Amino acid sequence: MRNVGSPQAGPAGRPTLEMVAAVAGVSRGTASRALNGGANVSPAALAAVRRAADELGYRPNMAARSLALGRSDSVGLVVSETDERLFADPFFAAVVRGVHSELTAAGMQLVLTFSQCDEERAQVVRFAVGRHLDGVLLISVHGDDPLPYSLVRAGIPVVMAGRGTEQERRAGVWWVEADNAGGARTAVQYLLAIGRRRIATVAGPADMTVGRDRVEGWRQALSSAGLEPEPALLRHGDFSELSGRIAAEALLEEVPDVDAIFVASDLMAIGAMQALRVRGRRVPDDVAVVGFDNAPAAARHLPPLTTVDQSVEQIGRCMARMLVHRIDGRPVTEQHVVLPTRLVVRETA
Amino acid sequence: MRNVGSPQAGPAGRPTLEMVAAVAGVSRGTASRALNGGANVSPAALAAVRRAADELGYRPNMAARSLALGRSDSVGLVVSETDERLFADPFFAAVVRGVHSELTAAGMQLVLTFSQCDEERAQVVRFAVGRHLDGVLLISVHGDDPLPYSLVRAGIPVVMAGRGTEQERRAGVWWVEADNAGGARTAVQYLLAIGRRRIATVAGPADMTVGRDRVEGWRQALSSAGLEPEPALLRHGDFSELSGRIAAEALLEEVPDVDAIFVASDLMAIGAMQALRVRGRRVPDDVAVVGFDNAPAAARHLPPLTTVDQSVEQIGRCMARMLVHRIDGRPVTEQHVVLPTRLVVRETA
DNA sequence: CTGTTAGCGCATTCAG
DNA sequence: CTGAATGCGCTAACAG
């Protein structure tokens, strides 16, 4: 009663290479050659095969090709984050856009996966090593996530967004990151240049390198200017708008005389500005604000948000390109790239 | 013996079922049975196989299984929309969440794909019929999109979000939609009940059933109340925030005495309220506003937005469930389901 | 309960 | 240039 794995699964039994060859009057071998590049095939045979394939509406069975070739032409993008945040944060949107466009150009498919719990993490590994995935792109990796390491150990090429640990580097994990510390430094230096002195920061999660690096930049800029990066001036959020608001509120409570905030993401910056407005602080007159990301919302905000631009789409594009090269065994100059950032001055600072 | 025949497969050769069987001292057949449910296998053999698989770190090759079984255990979610909008609109986030959770429960993988241009559309079909996909979920389908039809014609099970055409229904396309007309009607009736008389609407795209159905609900409610659904009261947007603002601006220009707007999405409603604020109209005192979706942003907005709730996550979950049932050949009671909506009254109306 | 056999559809040797 | 043969790793049907 149940439809078991019968050969004729589809309603009409899909055309196979064998049929195409038969119609074209050649052997399976030449048909195959004709369909893939057509090297070593006579023009006549090539035309015949192409016509036959077209007539029959032939589509190669990827599973079979996968089995024969040992590759699936698809790569996974795994997001170690709740899907809620994935969609809320424009950062991901841009990365996905970059990845997708680069992958499409290379004729590969994007398989999106979330891995929030350990169960899902295990499933990702299972799926990837089952040869369903030729490689994996990792996004939003937190410090203690074993995924990069276990994937590489299983022989899967991995490129992640953001710097990894030394262990991961040695294991062969590749990555691309923005110059987070540099960007943060530039932002804070700018704040100093326009005369601010009590410069706080709302940072990202402490268990992510992006989070820590931007704090480091803030710290450096302050120290270089002979200022003390007091602990009270440092707050952590999780990159969400709400967390930015909460952090800023706490900050204003404890450090009322703050005159500038460097916020580690535009979304959090927008949240922080809500807190400022509620407290009656004018931006930038009383408190200057600089964000990070140059998200679309930053430009749209009223007033337009000064921010550190990291070309996120580039990051995605770069990750995808590196992975594809690695899969194809093509030479790769750098296995760990750092993309530049630049300050975009608008009205909030 | 060119291949590395050692049981301990290094980075090159992954352990195969054959090796597991060898180590366990049984045949490939029993090893296979043991690993899939273990029916008709002696306890001793079962244990031996399991231990061997565990020791070798065996992972079944999905391509091979796919080829043998005729299914890939993965389904595609194709979004006929720019990735920009995909991520901007919380609607998609919720659908993806629902789909993903249901799929994970069924042990299937989600393959995300965009199909913005014809080239990508063709690629989706190619990919799906290549047996890489057991079925396809369609989101944000516009009126003239040939994708659902061509997929079904190619023998791929398809479930889409939103009602399809009569042709698609006959072809065997399934779908799940919210009660859009009903929800719109309820919203407008509520507006009438609180005394509004010049009730405009900012609708969705005219080439989408969701867009048209919500207009229809608005129309019905007005007519039933003996009011005329004047063309000047109807504006179209594309569900984006910006389009909502533009539509509302044009509306206020032409119909200055409007006292309520039913907006076909929360995002557009938020845009519309920006326009109202700029024009100095108070909400809800001068103009009442009702949105659609009950997006997170609706509740967060100041003032909180009255809206029509459609449990979007449910839609995704339902779509996925229907597709999985169909793939498994399990009985399905309904091929076209309509999910209820309900009005959530907050402060804007 | 088990080992054996026969494909699944394709790319790729090897002879001609 | 081409056809025939081989194998990718797995499942299912068929005998024991």
Mean pLDDT value of chain A: 90
Count of beta strands of chain A: 12
Helix content of chain A: 40-55%
Runs of chain A in which pLDDT lies below 50 for 5 or more consecutive residues are: 1-12
How much of the residues of chain A is beta strand, in percent? Answer: 15-25%
Q: With helices defined by DSSP (H or I, 4 residues minimum), what is the helix count of chain A?
A: 15
Regarding quaternary structure, what we see is homodimer
What is Rg of chain A?
26 Å
Q: What overall form of chain A do the CA principal axes indicate?
A: elongated
Fold and architecture overview:
2 copies of one chain form a homodimer. By secondary structure, the first copy, chain A, is of the alpha/beta class. The first copy, chain A, has helices spanning 17-24, 28-35, 43-56, 62-69, 83-88, 90-105, 118-132, 147-153, 166-171, 180-193, 209-224, 241-254, 266-278, 296-300, 312-328, and strands at residues 74-79, 109-114, 135-139, 158-161, 174-178, 199-203, 234-236, 260-263, 288-293, 306-310, 336-339, 341-344. In chain A, the strands form 2 sheets. A 6-stranded parallel sheet of chain A has the order 2-1-3-4-5-11, sandwiched between helices. In chain A, α6 runs parallel beside α15 (312-328) and α10 runs parallel beside α11. Chain A is elongated. The relative contact order of chain A is 0.11. Mean pLDDT of chain A is 90; it is low at 1-12. The interface between A and B is large, with 47 and 44 residues. The structure holds a DNA duplex (16 and 16 nucleotides).
